[in-house]
Amino acid sequence: MKDINECQARLRGLFNITVTPFKTDGSFDHAGLARNIERVIGLGFDGILIGGTYGEFPAMSTDERADLFRRVMDVVGDRVPVMLCTAGSDVRVVRELTTLAGEFGGLPMVTPPFVSEVTDAQIVSFFREIVPLSRTGVLVYNAPGIGITLSPAILEQLSDIDGVVGVKQGDLSPTAIDQIANRIGGRIKLFCASDLAFLGPMMCGFDGISSTNSCALPELILDTYRAIENGDAAKARDLHRLWYPFRALARELGQPQTTKAAMNLRGFDGGSVRRPLRDLDPAMVKQVAEVLRSIASDRRSSVALAA
């Protein structure tokens, strides 16, 4: 994407939160990552997200993240929009990666600053400093699990900053979703940050979702999203229920290791996680395999397992 206008026009739909496949020694499997990207683009996903929370960015150096951005954009080109997570605890790193992401034609995704205490005014000031660095604008990531939870009132202030093209909303409480959808919907793009409970936000008028589990169940989650996009809420509900056992297991065993295990079982390039995370043990992998078989056996499912 060359500028903010193009970014705003193309930012919609189902984005795959692409996991970063590491080898057992912790090195990158760049060829595997390219194959994973090609899979979801080939299936018809609307975009991808690289180096996010479940992409394990906290376990990467700044140089590794920059190299990851460069390699991914070389693979994707201009076929689909790419969100590039530039969050960090060091504002200097955030500035560097945000500038770079925009230069590559991706959309930088930025969280509030990682500090112990910060005021609302300081948060707004931080984004006013960072946003102009990217020629494609900035996506605000409201991620309660990894930092400050931005209130709808702060998000409304941020939506007034020129260059803020959207928000990826991780606080999925009904009150927050209702306020955000009705106070800033139509002004900037609204993305549901989780595929665990995206039906409500989409019905409220959100522009899209980002999905980690679609690395393991790309066909099923794409079918679910397209159903609600096409106005078939009943089908979307039923398909979303179909893979609840996988979501429940992921909550128990942790992410992204559960998704990576499922990808490996399907012959995809899930690879390993980086420390401090740990890959699932054989007993846990067996649980994942049982859930996958159950999902694939349902006649409504488009998931086909390797023989």
Q: Within the largest sheet, what's the order of strands?
A: 1-2-3-4-5-6-7-8
Query: Would you count the extended β strands for me?
Result: 8
The count of helical stretches stands at 13
Radius of gyration, Cα only, in angstroms?
Answer: 18 Å
Shape field: globular
SSE order = HEHEHEHEHEHEHEHEHHHHH
CATH class: Alpha Beta
Residue share in β-strands: 5-15%
Terminal Cα span? 40 Å
What would you say the CATH architecture is? Alpha-Beta Barrel
Q: Overall mean pLDDT score?
A: 95
CATH homologous superfamily descriptor? Aldolase class I
Number of domains: 1
Low-confidence stretches: none
Helical percent range?
Answer: 40-55%
For the biggest sheet, the summary is: 8 strands, parallel, barrel
**Class per helix and strand makeup:** alpha/beta
Explain what you see:
By secondary structure, the protein is α/β, with parallel strands linked by helices. It has a single domain (4-232), classed as Aldolase class I (TIM Barrel, Alpha-Beta Barrel), CATH 3.20.20. 46% of the residues lie in helices and 12% in strands. The chain has helices at 4-10, 30-43, 62-76, 91-104, 120-130, 152-159, 174-183, 199-203, 218-229, 233-242, 244-253, 257-265, 282-297, and strands at 13-18, 47-50, 82-85, 107-110, 138-142, 164-169, 189-192, 208-211.
